[in-house]
Amino acid sequence: MKTLQELVRPNIWSLSPYTSARDEYQGKDAKVFLDANENPYNDPVNRYPDPLQRDLKQRISAIKGVPADTIFFGNGSDEAIDLMYRIFCTPGKDNAVAIEPTYGMYGVCADINDVEYRRVLMDENFQPNADRILAATDSNTKLVFFCTPNNPSGNNIDHKVIDKVLDSFDGIVIVDEAYIDFAGVPSYLKQLADRPNLIVLQTFSKAWGMAGIRLGMAFAQPEIIGIMNKVKYPYNVNLLTQKRAMEEVMQYDRVQGWVESILKERTRLMAEFAKLDCCIKVYPSDANFFLARVKDAAATYNYLVDQGIIVRNRSKIALCGNSLRVTIGTVVENNALLEALSKY
Ligand code: PMP
Predict the structure, then answer these.
(1) Statement: residue 271 has pLDDT above 80
(2) Which of 147, 155, 157, 205 maximizes ligand 1 atoms within 8 Å of its Cβ, making it the mutation to test the pocket?
(3) SS3 letters across the chain
(4) pLDDT of residue 26
(5) 34, 177, 252, 261: least buried by Cβ within 10 Å?
(6) Whether residue 203 has its Cβ less than 6 Å from ligand 1
(7) Contact at 8 Å (CB) between 334 and 265?
(8) In terms of Cα–Cα distance, which of 51, 65, 64 is closest to 20?
(9) pLDDT classification of 246: cutoffs 50, 70, 90
């Protein structure tokens, strides 16, 4: 691996970050806070939140079994994706490589940051080839993106491929595990301590049921987390989000129950969907959604919209011709989908 200094943009490496009032005084014991130009009225939202979300990091550190200084929280994991480009990729010069098809924000953030985005097509079973990924890299490649389970295909990416790229590529490898709680395979968090070039993304938006509060996680070596903290907005995770997330992590056992219900429903819904007249193929899923090839995706999608049921038409995406992506809902919601399609 290149050194972190070689990988980070020179202007970011030498950046003096903004220091907020809450960075300067971190204690909670003071009686009078006259340091941050806050309004003294309207407790508690009159106060700026902890810029480094320390309480939440302590809890997540215990749940995930990783040190607190390897954790970054962002406004969704989308914030962490954007930060990868802003930290590592010099606009107009550096590039990123990713499996294709995959989560659209890697490409969109590359475009926003004027970074070349190289798509390496997977095979028809949505598995990538490590040699083809490595061949797509050059001396200006700073990032390689994997997403496992992958969106929109739903399957786990072969760990042997990811491991080979982690072993051979001299830049940063991002493994996006937004759907890991549904995957039935170990998380790359286990490899964090031994892999200086690994960044794992996870999110509160899926298994944790908190897409609305916008909270994502990145895990990496403390040196990388330190740089992310330098570049992020000072108060990137708002007070209400931190508070609500703290309440939710205290009842973490609920998440396991939700995951079990969703997995049970996934098995049932995929089996029933495969029997529908409109369905050509249901792809294997390790996530809380599945991809299905249908006879006419646009017509099926429009019919479902008329019935008040919204799925995602992914037909324009590589390898996903005439394919719909269906999120696993409650038993009632899934039955509504099946009933509507049985009459289609
Ligand atoms: N990664 C993947 C693979 C996703 O599918 C999504 C959301 N659909 C995200 C990241 C972003 O999640 P968040 O809500 O944490 O920004």
Answers:
(1) yes
(2) 205
(3) CCCHHHHCCHHHHCCCCCCCHHHHCCCCCCCCCCCCCCCCCCCCCCCCCCCCCHHHHHHHHHHHCCCHHHEEEECCHHHHHHHHHHHHCCCCCCEEEEEECCCCHHHHHHHHCCCEEEEEECCCCCCCCHHHHHHHCCCCEEEEEEECCCCCCCCCCCHHHHHHHHHHCCCEEEEECCCHHHCCCCCHHHHHHHCCCEEEEEECCCCCCCHHHCCEEEECCHHHHHHHHHHCCCCCCCHHHHHHHHHHHHCCHHHHHHHHHHHHHHHHHHHHHHCCCCEEEECCCCCCEEEEEECCHHHHHHHHHHCCCCCEECCCCCCCCCEEEEECCCHHHHHHHHHHHHCC
(4) 80
(5) 34
(6) yes
(7) yes
(8) 51
(9) very high
CA 304 to chain CA centroid, Å, is: 28
Task: State pLDDT tens for residues 90-111.
Answer: 999 999 999 999 999 999 999 9
216 lines ligand 1 (CB under 6 A): yes
Q: How confident is the model at residue 25 (pLDDT cuts 50, 70, 90)?
A: confident
Query: Does 218 contact ligand 1 (Cβ within 6 A)?
Result: no
Residue 174 forms beta bridges with which residues? Answer: 145, 199
Q: Which positions ≥6 away from 296 have C-beta within 8 Å?
A: 278, 322
Among candidates 183, 57, 182, which has minimal Cα distance to 162? 183
Centre of ligand 1 to C-alpha 210, Å, is: 12
Number of neighbours of residue 227 by Cβ within 10 angstroms:
23
Average pLDDT, the chain: 97
